[in-house]
Design brief:
mainly alpha
C-alpha cells in the first residue's frame, strides 16, 4: 500500500516540475512572446523590410520565438 501512482504534471519530487513549475514555464513563454512582439512592433516598416520581414509576420514570429516551431 506504500506505492502510489502520481501524474508527472502534479508530482513535485524527483525533478518533475509540478504544477507551479509548469505555470511558471508557460508564463515565461508568454513573457518571451510579449517582449518579442513589442520589440518587433516598435520597428519601422523600413527596418522590418531591411530584416526581410513584414508587419504581418510579427505575430507568428513572436509565437515561434516563444513556443517553438
Amino acid at each position: 500500500m506504500g506505492n502510489a501512482t502520481c501524474n508527472s504534471a502534479v508530482h513535485v519530487g524527483n525533478g518533475a516540475p509540478g504544477v507551479l513549475g509548469l505555470i511558471r514555464a508557460r508564463f515565461e513563454q508568454y513573457k518571451t512572446y510579449r517582449q518579442t512582439h513589442r520589440e518587433l512592433s516598435s520597428l519601422t516598416d523600413r527596418a522590418l523590410s531591411d530584416l526581410g520581414l513584414s508587419r504581418s509576420m510579427i505575430k507568428s514570429l513572436a509565437r515561434e520565438a516563444a513556443y517553438g516551431a
